[in-house]
Specification:
It is a single chain. By secondary structure, the chain is mainly α. Helices cover 81% and strands 0% of the residues. The longest helix has 83 residues. The protein starts with a helix and ends with a helix.
Length: 274
């Protein structure tokens, strides 16, 4: 009875279960997303308060990721195989802790390399966390995520790029950047907006390529579904023919058995008189 109820609940709330799969690690996802504004807060060379907020955010990111890593370690500590993502998470935690150390507004070459390396690791971890849920059946979720990314990138360019004077222009710059069109009417001009454009291209190209690939997969899936229906119809027709042949064979066997019985009865009568 309990199993039946459990099965019924899984059928009633499929959308809830899919949503829970997407947010199975909320601490990790929240920490990774908070690291994005933290990086750009540190790029602000005019306000010490904004840079201090960036250091605090990096500390919060390190705390969230450390808590998530500890929970995952407790959950999987008895498994023999260790995931390579744990090493990536630990490296991100170390980088975020190092980013809490106050530095000058003008970064040295070494600091630029280290901070960009940390950003690359964070982008890679976001991709492994989010893109693994991308399936052809989740096309609407992917389109919604792509639109959220486009609108968020537009807000980022509106904040970082001085040549963008409206949010609409920020969204336009984000779209041309993601699509790698490069019209040239608005281009990133500051180091912050250029770095932002690099990561937008990396994430956006992956996101939108998956969306377009899955739209194409829908058309292929329709053709496969048509072929599958035709194949099932052929199988049903063959099943009916085989069933009819078996019934015909059974009738013939009964007919020949009856003839044999009549023959034996007729030939057996003289022996009975003797």
């Amino acid at each position: 009875m309990n199993n039946k109820k459990h099965g019924d609940s899984s059928g009633i709330f499929p959308a809830t279960q899919r949503f829970m799969n997407w947010v199975s690690r909320p601490l990790l996802l929240a920490g990774l997303l908070l690291s994005i504004p933290a990086f750009y807060f540190l790029l602000d060379s005019f306000s010490a308060t904004v840079r201090f907020s960036g250091h605090v955010l990096y500390g919060l990111v390190a705390l969230l990721l450390a808590l998530d890593t500890y929970l995952q370690w407790r959950k999987n500590r008895f498994k023999k195989r260790r995931s390579g993502k744990l090493t990536l998470d630990l490296s991100i935690i170390v980088g975020c802790i190092a980013s809490t150390i106050p530095t000058s507004a003008d970064w040295s070459l070494v600091e630029w390399v280290l901070r960009l390396g940390l950003c690359a690791a964070i982008v890679m971890r976001i991709a492994t966390l989010v893109l693994k849920h991308m399936k052809p059946s989740h096309l609407m979720q992917m389109i919604v995520m792509a639109l959220l990314m486009l609108t968020s990138a537009g807000a980022g360019f509106y904040w970082l790029e001085p040549n963008v004077h409206s949010y609409a222009n920020g969204v336009w710059l984000a779209f041309t950047t993601i699509a790698t069109v490069g019209y040239g009417d608005i281009v990133p001009s500051t180091p912050a907006s250029k770095i932002f454009a690099v990561f937008i291209v990396l994430l956006g190209y992956a996101m939108f390529s998956i969306v377009t690939a899955n739209i194409a997969a829908l058309f292929v899936g329709e053709e496969e579904e048509l072929l599958e229906r035709e194949m099932h119809a052929d199988i049903r027709a063959l099943t009916r023919e085989v069933t009819a042949l078996r019934e015909e064979l059974a009738r013939r066997e009964n007919f020949f058995a009856q003839l044999e019985q009549e023959f034996l009865q007729k030939n057996g009568e003289p022996d009975a008189r003797r």
